[in-house]
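Reply to dn_fold:

You asked what the input looked like. This is it:
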Amino acid sequence: MAFSVVFHHDATDPLAVISAPPPNESSHERAAREEREIEAQRISDLIDDEIRAERAVRKKEENVVKILLLGQSESGKSTTLKNFRMRFARDRWTEERASWRAVILLNLVRSANTILDALSQEMDDVEQDGLDGAFKFDDYYRQYKVRLSPLQAVESNLKRLLGATEDIQPRKQISPTTIIPNGSQEFFVRSRSWRNFLQTTQGPDSESPRRFQQDLPTLLDSTDMIANGKDDIKTLWRDSHIQAMLWKRKTRLEDSAGFFLDSIDRLSVRDYEPTDEDVLRARLRTLDIQEHELIVDDETDAPKWKIFDVGGSRTQRHAWLPYFDQVNAVIFLAPISCFDERLLEDPRVNRLEDSFILWKAICSSKLLSRTILILFLNKMDILEQKIRHGVMVKRFLPSYGDRPNETNDVVKYLRQKFKDTVRYCSPEPRVCHIYPTSVIDTKNMSVTLISVRDGILREHLKRADLF
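and this is what came back:
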């Protein structure tokens, strides 16, 4: 015989009516109902936990300023990040500085090998073509190639020490007048590998003194090999015929090549310790995203900054999109000295044109419509050098017309072009801060970074007051 359970509730209470069990509910039906209610309560509790966790994350992120460094490859993003860290994370920067010794030596050796490779190709071309009236590099120069041949092994050893991987795309001649010597292929390291290297090579007191002791012989041997060939390297670098050959072949050296080659006496001693400027000029291509946290203000309640340095080559730009979410500011680097250069990844594309294309895409993005835009018109120092040496901007940028071929006029023209892009392509009106920069100029960059910091913090506080 089945027994029914009778429930009494206040018929005037709508919530009680809704939640009341059905009349004449059997014990079997009651058990099933209670099981469903327990499951529903479990799901409700999970949802509540997720909401609380999300609120906690949002509250934490309210005190975090998220900054993206964007721009094409070799635009100066990593050097800008170094400036931020040198200015606002000085202690950590000083701890890591010694670890850059291997990178600096590698930059020096790669520059020397690039010159030697270009010399080899030049000598082969002259022999094959038999050019009349052309300067011929005879056995006097051939002996330098022989004596400096051990530098190839030094380059390989330093790359191995850093855990570097060669670029998957072979370096090749990209036009009859522009070559990339095969002996100096582009290389990269993964950000995680580089962070591990930094942590374990800061000296005998580092996190892994055994790793430091294992790596030290490679560094010292490399230093000795460079010291043995430094006089030959200096002679080649300062030779007017070599300089003319590099210019004629449009051989591509790193922007910092001259700095390290001119400093070879200082770099090639066993007790060499990197300086701030050495580290700032050293180039190391990382394959993936670099993230750094900084405290940019001494106030106790000042927000923490997270700066993301994303790869700028065309094969890496697909990774930008996920970082657009909840970003507070974009610092975009446009190397305006590159008006006469071509992209390494696609020689058909002018580098300045590529920067304009990227800038337009960033300004047009709805995901970034409320993001602060900061534009660095970078590599002012190189622009000044090119103009001083007589390079005509209008030859490569016909729209420049008959304006004066002077640095200030070129900067003014390009500044307006970038500013017009913000005005006409942004989904809604916004302010864009534009700074002509040379990111290797630490004194001026320190002033610029303070201005950038203050502007971003003002906007961050202004928006926080709206919610």
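Confidence is low (pLDDT under 50) at residues 1-7, 167-184.
Hope that clears it up.
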